[in-house]
Amino acid sequence: MIGVFDSGFGGLTILKEIRRVLPEYDYLYLGDNARTPYGTRSFEVVYEYTLQAVKYLFGHGCELVILACNTASAKALRSIQQRDLCDMVGVLPNGMPKRRVLGIIRPTAEAVGAMTKTGHVGVLATQGTVDSESYPIEIHKLNPEIVVTQQACPMWVPLVENCEYDSAGADYFVKKYIAELMHKDPQTDTLLLGCTHYPLLQRKIEEVLRQSGMTQVRLLSQGQIVSESLRDYLQRHRDIEKACQHGGTCRYLTTEAEQKFAQSATIFMGEAIEVTHVELT
Ligand code: DGL
User: Is the pLDDT of residue 268 over 80?
Assistant: First the structure.
């Protein structure tokens, strides 16, 4: 299977797109809803939680694990790839790990250069992703001339996790963070939704941009970028592609109560979802 991990519901925005582009594979989604949000937690804690999740997914039949969470990609991916992966999954004769774990920051950073006309990009993300500086670092590796302005949006994940993304409260906090970012760099013409929960607020963000006359600003969300990058990856890594099952199924796991997850995820995915509770240790 292909494992897709997020701290909560946010990774479903990535999974949905991946399944649209690559419907033939079997997927196993794991949401650590009991311990969400990750965005306000330290490097050590995010690393530890993410490592537990990755171990779980490899231990339950995944060939490949996608960290469909910017915070986990920013704070845990590199350590897991460098320190833990080979011990966890074994090594091929060429020294490469037998199974792989991928993040979502690199492919997103690669897409930014083609979008901006002014060369000014805004990154909306969790405090953890902002503090890691992962986006400015990755964007500047490819496009050193791009001006990157970051804005942490700590209230957005709780709004999404609590299904309040259409409420008046969401209006207030969407306006607040967009205004803060545009005040820091009014030349920004591309806003990157650097957290997988944020596409659920996309309609509100577009509304706020329209109402504030910022019609030149375009939104970049990650689902399509990540799914196309995964398709490309599987074409380049035929051994991994062959090892993935082609049954077109999707199973869901959560560390929270099953019913709570199923209700929100069913609405979000547009199909009935059966979910199993798991403990991560
Ligand atoms: N959805 C995650 C991200 O992309 C993290 C949200 C959180 O747990 O704070 O950053």
Answer: no
Which atom from ligand 1 is nearest to the alpha carbon of 197? 1
Sheet holding 100-102, edge to edge: 100-102, 64-67, 2-6, 27-31, 250-254, 275-277
Distance (Å) from CA 95 to ligand 1 centroid: 32
> Ligand 1 pocket test: which of 157, 160, 161, 200 has the largest number of ligand atoms within 8 Å of its C-beta?
157
Cβ count within 10 A of residue 96: 13
User: What does DSSP say about strands 64-67 and 100-102: parallel, antiparallel, or unpaired?
Assistant: parallel
Active site residues: 69, 195
pLDDT (tens digit per residue) in 201-246? 999 999 999 999 999 999 998 999 999 999 999 999 999 999 999 9
User: In this predicted model, what pLDDT tens digit does every residue of 45-57 receive, in sequence order?
Assistant: 999 999 999 999 9
Q: Which atom of ligand 1 is nearest to the CA of 74?
A: 10
> Is pTM, for the whole model, over 0.90?
yes
